[in-house]
Amino acid sequence: MRIDIITVLPELLKSPFEASILKRAIEKDLVEVHLHNLRDYTTGNYKQVDDYQFGGGAGMVMMIEPIDKCISQLKSEREYDEVIYMTPDGKTLNQGMANEISMKKNIIVLCGHYKGVDQRVRDMFVTREISIGDYVLSGGELAAAILCDAVIRLLPGVLNDETSALTDTFQDNLLAPPVYTRPAEYKGMEVPKILLSGNFPKIEKWREQQALERTQERRPDLLEK
Ligand code: 6GU
């Protein structure tokens, strides 16, 4: 998979890809992530990427021209399956969307800033608009990092047995059951006996039951789907 991220703040997006699982995935050539600074696609001396909105009102709007130049350049080099615009008025990201996007070959992720992009960018180029939740961030960069993390960890070969995505919370619309590690007793608090029993069919049943109870208590909305 190849991900091209278009942003006015590439520095903000560097570190997530230079640590941990995402770094390993890039080193193993399971994914390529390329950051594109929108200012490199401006004309004129001021490297202007935003301007006042027509009709008046507070807040700047990202201009279409540099975005067009950047996307057109990328599209001339390869075919893209999606152009994703990160925006608080997009569809809220969930595990199903992450699964879907992880099957794509080449995607562009456009990070919004200020009041967002000129509507014509959305009409002309964008195939999918994604939000990461009902709150406002100062830009789409951190949201893009979250999308990339959720997608990249699903790519074949990224996770090993220990970090397998199959038992993740949400993968089956259930929250994950509680987990424990050594010591079996800490300051009087004991690990549930069943987990020390070695009876694996019974342990599996207990985990399913715990997952169901947790979901009922914390996220009953997930069970209605
Ligand atoms: Cl994708 N962008 C911004 N600026 N704020 C957000 C968001 C995205 N998702 C939730 N809040």
Automatic annotation (TrEMBL):
Residues 1-225 form the tRNA methyltransferase TRMD/TRM10-type domain. SUPFAM superfamilies: alpha/beta knot (SSF75217). Its EC number is 2.1.1.228. InterPro entries: Alpha/beta_knot_MTases (IPR029028), tRNA_m1G_MeTrfase_C_sf (IPR023148), tRNA_m1G_MeTrfase_TrmD (IPR002649), tRNA_m1G_MTases_N (IPR029026), tRNA_MeTrfase_TRMD/TRM10 (IPR016009). Its main location: cytoplasm. GO terms for cellular component: cytosol. It holds the Pfam family tRNA_m1G_MT. Belongs to the RNA methyltransferase TrmD family. PANTHER family: TRNA (GUANINE-N(1)-)-METHYLTRANSFERASE. This is tRNA (guanine-N(1)-)-methyltransferase.
